[in-house]
């Protein structure tokens, strides 16, 4: 009688793409999805910040941390973008 080997699920938070965006366009698309609004509807200051961020790094964690920090601080007292 053959005994099946025990299986352990591989728990990788991003098993196919890695931990960086492949390019700036992909990063901006993910940011727009995260914010729930097209980037064209953001202010010039907000778009400039996004452009600066993705020019500096494509690391997903760093991009989202910076975007969340910026939008959480820049939206206070205004209508929230999400």
What does this structure look like?
This protein has helices at 24-35, 44-56, 60-74. By secondary structure, it is an all-alpha fold. It has a domain at 24-74. α1 (24-35) crosses α2 (44-56) and α2 packs antiparallel against α3. The chain starts with 23 loop residues before the first helix and ends in an 8-residue tail after the last helix.
List keywords for this structure.
mainly alpha, 82 residues, elongated, 3 helices, 49% helix
| Main beta sheet | none
Outline the low-pLDDT stretches: none
Q: Sketch the topology as an H/E string, one letter per element.
A: HHH
By DSSP, the count of extended strands is 0
Shape: elongated
The quaternary structure here is single chain
Beta-sheet strand percentage?
under 5%
Our Rg estimate from Cα atoms comes to: 18 Å
Cα end-to-end separation = 57 Å
- Count of helical regions: 3
Alpha-beta content class: mainly alpha
The average pLDDT score comes to: 84
Helicity range of the residues?
40-55%
């Amino acid at each position: 009688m053959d005994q099946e080997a025990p299986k352990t699920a591989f728990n990788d938070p991003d098993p196919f793409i890695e931990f960086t965006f492949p390019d700036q366009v992909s990063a901006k698309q993910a940011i727009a999805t995260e914010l729930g609004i097209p980037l064209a509807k953001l202010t010039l200051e907000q778009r400039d910040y996004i452009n600066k961020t993705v020019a500096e790094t494509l690391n997903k964690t760093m991009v989202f941390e910076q975007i969340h920090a910026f939008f959480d601080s820049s939206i206070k007292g205004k209508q929230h973008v999400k």
